[in-house]
Amino acid sequence: MKMFMGGWCKLYECGHSFNVDRSGGISNLRTQKITDRTLEELAQEFQGFEPPLLPSIERILLDNGLEALHVQVRRSSVLPVSFRGVPYERVLNTTRTMPRTNYQRLLVDDGQLSRAAIALFCQDDIQYPDFPQLKLRLARFKGITRNEFLDNKQYSGNAFSLMRRAERFLLDRLPIAGRVVPGQLERIDTPALPVEAIREALANAFIHRDYTSGAGSIGVALYDDRLEIISPGNLHFGLTPETLLQPHESKPWNPLIANVFYRRGHIETWGRGTLKIVELMTSAGLAAPNIQNTLDDHVIVTFDLTKLREGVNEGVNEGVNEGVNEPLLTIVSNHPGLRAPALAKKLQTSSKNVERWLKTLRNQQQIEFRGAPKTGGYYVCH
After folding, report:
1. CB atoms within 10 A of CB 125
2. Helix or strand (DSSP H, E) at 287
3. pLDDT confidence bin for 304, thresholds 50/70/90
4. Minimum mean pLDDT among 15-19, 276-280, 286-290, 341-345: which range?
5. Cis check: omega of the bond before 51, within 30 degrees of 0
6. Contacts of 27 (CB under 8 A, 6+ apart)
7. Spatial separation of the C-alpha atoms in residues 321 and 315, rounded to whole Å
8. What is the widest separation between alpha-carbon atoms in the chain?
9. φ and ψ at residue 44, rounded to 5 degrees
10. What are the strands, taking DSSP E only, across 172-296?
11. Distances (CA, A) of 336 to 361, 372, 381
């Protein structure tokens, strides 16, 4: 089915369909019966457009008793328009695939790629000395200060790839809540902080950072007592940390980037990001995050982890302590020399979870790995 932008429309008459151009001419007569299925298929087709297009659909009763379907689409204010990932353009009376040179021309400003285009579409793992904004810092600190690293990583790339790296980093290092469900052999392990809340906070950091400045970078800092997500730049348009935790209008500092994140499904509704985080944390029995606009022009979202370690949140802390400190340590003590897969089998969980818990115990110097990488195993430290 061909779809025409900027005033073009298609009429479906019962048994036939034909195109009507701006001058009123009719072309491309086709046979097609109009049913409810026709409307469903039309709606499905429109889901393939980026940016989203909202068609005007009207059913028209003709003089001969037949019915016509009038579909009209307004010209998109955002170019290029793509269908199922392929950009198109209108040339005279035809719609054609947009040449690469024309597509690239729409992404430049005065001969240079716009900052939004680079931030969203640059190639992964390529250093851009002229764009230090495209950097992510990930750190796991020992204790509650920045005096000592347990892990420290830096990456460059587009916003989407950096966000995926940040998610994986946190999911591999956050405490795990485990619970046994009656009737199931395997325990259910989930991150102690709601995954959606973490993802929303990370998305906000990439969307609202100040890309006009090369100073600073998106930072993710995990301590024993808290998680900090750091974004360079100030709050704007009169927004304050207090108003962000109340219903407020959407005022993205980088609307082009926010729009692409929205269309990619990383955020749901503009203006509800912080409220959604609060709802997710509250539903999990956890405190809402603290939002701070620092004097050195950074916005920091802090998630409190002390409840997880002090046992205030009983269900979460029980899973963390049981999963790491007691059963696993006991098994290593009673069966020295076992490797992660064998330990996972005894605990009836995945090897990935056990490897994460083993790393925690090794960092606490309660266990150690002895022998060659392929033949050695874990032992309790003496």
Report:
1. 8
2. none
3. very high
4. 15-19
5. yes
6. 18, 19, 21
7. 10
8. 94
9. -65, -40
10. 176-179, 188-191, 218-222, 226-232, 290-293
11. 15, 15, 11
- What SS3 state is found at 141? strand
If pLDDT is split at 50, 70 and 90, which confidence band does 314 have?
very low
Q: What is the bridge-based pairing of β-strands 218-222 and 135-141? A: parallel
Sign for the pseudo-dihedral over CA of 42, 47, 51, 55? positive
Fold of 135-310: Heat Shock Protein 90 (3.30.565)
- In DSSP terms, which residues pair with 49 in a beta bridge? 83
- Quick one: which of 196, 177, 189 has its CA closest to 315? 177
Q: What is the DSSP string of 36-50?
A: HHHHHHHHHHHTTEE
Element (H, E) at 304: strand 298-304
Say if residues 170 and 222 touch (Cβ distance below 8 Å): yes
pTM over 0.70: no
Residue with token string 């069966």: 335
For residue 3, the tally of other CB atoms under 10 A from its CB is 20
Domain 325-380 has CATH 3.40.50.1820: no
Residue listed under structure tokens 């927004």:
239
Rounded-to-integer distance, Cα 146 and Cα 162, Å: 22
> Measured between alpha carbons, how far is 34 from 32 in angstroms, rounded to an integer?
6
The torsion angles phi and psi of 156, rounded to 5 degrees, stand at: -120, 150
Closest CA to 83 of 93, 72, 98: 98
Residue 93 has φ and ψ, to the nearest 5°, of -105, 20
**C-alpha to C-alpha distance for 360 and 276, rounded to whole angstroms:** 31
Residue 205 tokens read as: 């950091």
Cβ–Cβ under 8 Å, residues 178 and 320: yes
Question: What's at 373, amino acid-wise?
Answer: P
Residues 6+ apart with CB under 8 A from 296: none
Separation CA 344–CA 336 (nearest Å): 14
Distance CA 381, CA 181 (A): 33
C-alpha pair distances (Å), 207 with each of 52, 167, 168, 193: 20, 16, 19, 22
Ranges in the chain annotated CATH 3.30.565.60: 135-310
- Please, which residues have CB within 8 angstroms of residue 124's CB and are 6 or more apart in sequence? 157, 158, 161
CB-count exposure of residue 290 (10 Å: 0-12, 13-18, 19+):
middle
